[in-house]
Amino acid sequence: MKTLISGGTVVSSTGRTVADVLVDGETIAAVLAPGSTALGVDLATSVDRVIDASGKYVVPGGIDAHTHMEMPFGGTFASDTFETGTTAAAWGGTTTIVDFVVQYPDQNPLEQYALWHDKAAGQCAIDYGFHQILSDVQDSSLKAMDELVAEGVTSFKLFMAYQGVFLSDDGQILRAMQKASDNGAMIMMHAENGSVIDVLVRQALEAGNTSPYHHGLTRPWQAEAEATSRAIMLADLTGAPLYVVHVSAKQAVEQIAIARDKGQNVFGETCPQYLYLSLEEQLAAHSERWGAFEGAKWVCSTPLRSRAEGHQDHMWQALRTNDVQLVSTDHCPFCMKDQKELGLDNFAKIPNGIGSVEHRMDLMYQGVVSGQISLERWVEITSTTPARMFGMWGRKGVIAPGADADVVVYDPAGHTSIGVGKTHHMNMDYSAWEGFEVDGHVDLVMSRGTVLVSDGAFHGRPGHGQYVRRGLSQYLL
Ligand code: URP
Ligand code: ZN
Ligand code: ZN
Ligand code: ZN
After folding, report:
1. Which residue's alpha carbon is nearest to atom 3 within ligand 1?
2. pLDDT given for residue 336 in this prediction
3. Assembly ipTM
4. Ligand 1, atom 4: nearest CA belongs to which residue?
5. CATH topology match: 2-59+396-413+438-458 vs 61-389
6. What is the Cα 283 distance to its own chain's centre?
7. How many Å lie between the centroid of ligand 1 and the Cα of residue 330?
8. Concatenated DSSP letters for 27-51?
9. Atom number, ligand 1, closest to the C-alpha of residue 300
10. Which residue positions does N6-carboxylysine occur at (predicted)?
């Protein structure tokens, strides 16, 4: 099957040009001047299908490098399965996710990895890779890290918070970093000081402060900045590359920038919630149904930050200057009913997470509309850099001959209203983005040559998505 995506503006991380994109089977065969006869034939009449993209942007499919489908967490499971979550992702122009295999203390990382393959196989509408979470780092975990790298799991997430659940102590972190320095893997860090947070949480609850807003107040920016700094020092000591996940505090960004200025392989990821939403809005949230518990919709870790303190503005600036390299969602959806509700009387029992996998491309495109980032930077932070950061570039993250035909046709003149019952296919009974009006529209989504979304309809299927065996990072300094 040959397809010509004709007349669109093809955008890469480095430029844009009006071009025709020839897709042959699952890959991109050529990017040609419009109406080109360079291949010796009139393509428009010789291909099986022509997609008219004139007046629209043709961009590489989005890559969401941080999702948690069906994640067991907080006494429940993230509400999107691999099927519902990847279908929602496709609707929003994301054609690859990298999800997290979970290893709780005393579980065998390799057994967990096999289990996650069982969960995802045959279910995904788009391609998927895995990072591995390590909690307790045992001798066997270090051995498993080598085996997982050979499997294409080239990044390992560690936690400096969640004592007794995920937390690794500094010695365990050091050992995992030594291994990563040796085998080339990326260390991903949940950088929050867990001991400090645990004390603040206990004190808040003892004082009767149980509402969702106190989740944010008990995870102050100092706990994030301190842990970020500590992780950077440990990475420096070992030589391991470090990727700090879901950065929300401007002071954490500053730590990352200092390390990068010194030439250290330290990278920062942020998420749409840390660019658009704030602690003040969470405090103000109130509904007839939920009262002040409405704020539970925005309970995630790291937490939303104060707008008055300037974190969101600083984060946009860091995205422009590349102090922060990319935007993932940290998609970890929980419904209000029966899930977030677990913390009705105690914010510490609210399962942590926000669902955004469907909206990342649209939400970040608003940065282009408002002039905060360029069109090219939009492609870079949502697709090209995730591909490079996590060893998929060449196959993903670029529209070039030989790459997988993962392509989005994006209409800058279109419009998208976000919310339950509007554009929302995630398995959630609410949206953290309810009411957001987006300039721009995902018109067509292609994954390895197959059209998944067009004309407002979904044509994909569970099982189309394949496992992506990733290489080592292609982004190191
Ligand atoms: O609140 C969050 N971020 N939930 C998902 C787990 C994690 O720490 O990434
Ligand atoms: Zn985390
Ligand atoms: Zn996460
Ligand atoms: Zn449209």
Report:
1. 301
2. 98
3. 0.95
4. 353
5. no
6. 25
7. 6
8. EEEEEE-TT--TTSS-HHHHSSEEE
9. 1
10. 157
